[in-house]
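FAQ

Q: What does a record look like?
A: Structure on top, sequence underneath. For example:
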């Protein structure tokens, strides 16, 4: 994924994302490479260390969201996802 794509997906400015990516790269969690298609473009991917951390975080993340959504029915959860997706879509157009 390119930095521009990631910035649009996360709805953050490129400047803020660049600072965050620099810290993640410094800590060995991501790797940035030059795109083969466009030498001006940079690609970002998780390093081996970053992938291991991501795997380690999966259970705590799922537990957090299960706890946060525990009082919502299945239909309520679907509605929440629907409206949140609409909100995200509208925000990306701003």
């Amino acid at each position: 994924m390119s930095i521009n794509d990631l910035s649009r997906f996360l709805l953050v400015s490129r400047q803020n994302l660049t600072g965050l990516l620099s810290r993640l790269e410094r800590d060995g969690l991501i790797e940035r490479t030059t795109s083969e298609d466009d030498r001006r473009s940079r690609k970002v991917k998780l390093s081996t260390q970053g992938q291991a951390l991501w795997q380690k975080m999966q259970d705590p993340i799922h537990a957090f969201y299960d706890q946060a959504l525990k009082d919502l029915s299945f239909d309520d959860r679907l509605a929440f996802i629907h409206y949140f997706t609409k909100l995200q879509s509208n925000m990306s157009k701003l």
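Q: Is there anything notable about this one?
A: DSSP finds four helices and two strands in the chain.
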